[in-house]
Amino acid sequence: MRTSPALLGVLLLASACTSASAPTLPIPPPSALSSAPDADGFVTVTGDGAIEGAMVLAYNQRLETGVIGTVSDLGTFELRLEADVGDSILVWQRIGTDASRFVEILVPRPPGR
Questions:
Q1: Which residues are paired to 81 by β-bridges?
Q2: In this structure, which of 4, 6, 33, 89 has its CB flanked by the most CB atoms within 10 Å?
Q3: Could you state, in order of their start, the residue ranges of all structural domains in the chain?
């Protein structure tokens, strides 16, 4: 039995289309807030809406330092890093090699200042 070249081409095209992986949905960025700096010059970045088990990252752009933590089973996280009032902190989450866009938060002044 002989297969025509046209039929063979159609079969190869159909096979390629079904074996291609489906595109994944983008990971949403978590929501995050920063505390004012404490007496030691550290802030606490907290948030929710993250994906359970994901890594969450916070990066202080001025100091070029960051921290990594894990999201709880409730989608919350808490990170502590060095920062000063007005510093810009980027926060995002990662699952494997997929990462969300980042959110930028600013370190606030302590209340009453």
A1: 43
A2: 89
A3: 25-106
What is the per-residue pLDDT across 51-94, written as a single tens digit (0 to 9) for each? 999 999 999 999 999 999 999 999 999 999 999 999 999 999 99
Q: How many residues does the chain have?
A: 113
Q: Is residue 96 helix, strand or coil?
A: coil
Alpha-carbon distance of 2 to 100, in angstroms, equals 51
| 113 against 77, higher pLDDT | 77
How far is 85 from 2, CA to CA, in rounded Å? 76
The rounded distance, in Å, linking the Cα atoms of 110 and 30 is 24
Give me 50's structure tokens: 């993250």
Q: With 0.85 as the threshold, say if the pTM is over it.
A: no
**Mean pLDDT estimate for the chain:** 86
* CATH superfamily entry for domain 25-106: Immunoglobulins (2.60.40.10)
